[in-house]
Amino acid sequence: MAVHVVRLGSARSPGEGLRVGTVRHPPRGVAKADYASRGYYDVWLPELAPSAALVKAGQQAQDEGTERTWRSFERRYRAEMKRPDAARLLDLLAAISHRMDLAVGCYCEDERRCHRAVLRALLAERGAKLA
Hints:
By secondary structure, this protein is α/β, with parallel strands linked by helices. The chain has one domain (3-125). The protein has 4 helices and 4 strands; from the N terminus they run βββαααβα. The protein has helices at residues 52-64, 67-80, 84-96, 115-125, and strands spanning 3-7, 18-21, 43-44, 102-106. Strands 1-4-2-3 form a 4-stranded parallel beta sheet. It is globular.
């Protein structure tokens, strides 16, 4: 049992478990009934996505590729995840990881410059079992 960190819309891996979307918006052009079957997510938790303003900063960090821009994004996302509602959800996912397999993800191609890299670290800091 563990948390897998995935790219939404990708093929599911064996043993991945429940897939949780941590994105601000559902996939465009995909019927709600098809989210799971097309590899997006089974459950949507937009509360774990960066705010709209921070998504723009994250896209800038991806485009520029500078460490300074990325560190700023990471610092701001971590601050958002300290909000009580987000912190409780992170604690819940960390606890669930010891009982069942689950996956959390985002649409970004490169995890190294995506909030899911920070999400992986936040879950690890809460004692989640990571795949």
